[in-house]
Design brief:
Layout (H helix, E strand, L loop, with lengths): L1 E2 L2 E3 L7 H11 L4 E4 L7 H12 L3 E4 L14 H15 L8 E2 L14 H9 L3 E2 L4 E2 L10 H9 L3 E2 L1 E4 L9 H10 L3 E2 L10 E2 L2 E2 L12
Parallel strand pairs: 1-8, 1-10, 2-3, 2-9, 3-4, 5-6, 7-9
Antiparallel strand pairs: 11-12
Length: about 210
């Protein structure tokens, strides 16, 4: 089994450093999809820089993370969410230009709009979705075994975790140990079925992820 471990919604000064410590102890490199507005403070920026320096990938997770882009009334406001977060990341984004839409834990037509899709294509983004939602915020002390079982259902799992102050990240080391005991291979690439746009090229129809009437 291959695992591409991802974290959404950070950086969070009171949580993300401990997550980075745990990943370093276990020798695991992950991908962090950061909310652009969270990078405004000096402390948060330094955490993002640390993650980058330690070999983790950093991606764009919109600027405000308030509304799925496909549900925003003004399509251009949705494009601006990507652009503003892109500016906040700056050189930390790296060459791959990774973007993950905000989906409220589901994949569907609400994720993007046509204007955002076309922007991602024009600017050579890789749009990364997921195939495992760990839902660690619901059971902060007991999410690990259910998450592992969900990962087992995929030859290449892309689980979503959140480096947020829910208490769940206190169990991250246990979860990583469970994955290592399974003999998984950790990867920072993503399977085609989780990358509807890959380096600016669509791998599935645009209609899969934009509003039906768009």
């Amino acid at each position: 089994m291959r695992i591409s471990l991802t974290f959404d919604n950070g950086p969070t000064p009171q949580i993300t450093p401990a997550v980075l410590d745990t990943l370093a102890r276990r020798g695991v490199r992950a991908t962090f999809f950061l909310v652009g507005s969270n990078l405004a403070g000096r402390e948060a920026r330094s955490i993002a820089e640390r993650a980058h320096d330690e070999g983790h990938q950093l991606g764009n997770h919109s600027y405000t993370h308030t509304t799925p882009l496909g549900l925003m009334p003004d399509p251009l406001d949705a494009v601006a969410e990507v652009i503003r977060a892109e500016g906040a990341l700056g050189c930390l984004a790296g060459d791959q230009r990774l973007f993950r839409p905000f989906g409220r834990a589901t994949i569907g037509h609400h994720l993007l709009n046509r204007q955002v899709w076309e922007y991602l294509e024009r600017h050579n983004y890789t749009c990364v979705v997921w195939n495992v939602i760990c839902r660690e915020w619901e059971r902060p002390d007991a999410w690990m075994a259910p998450a592992l079982e969900l990962c087992r259902q995929h030859e290449w799992a892309v689980p979503v975790l959140h480096d947020l102050p829910t208490g769940a990240m206190q169990q991250l080391d246990t979860f990583l140990g469970m994955l290592i005991d399974e003999g998984v291979t950790f990867s920072q690439d993503f399977p085609v079925d989780c990358t509807p746009i890959r380096a600016g090229r669509a791998t599935r129809p645009v209609a899969d992820l934009v509003p039906i009437d768009a």
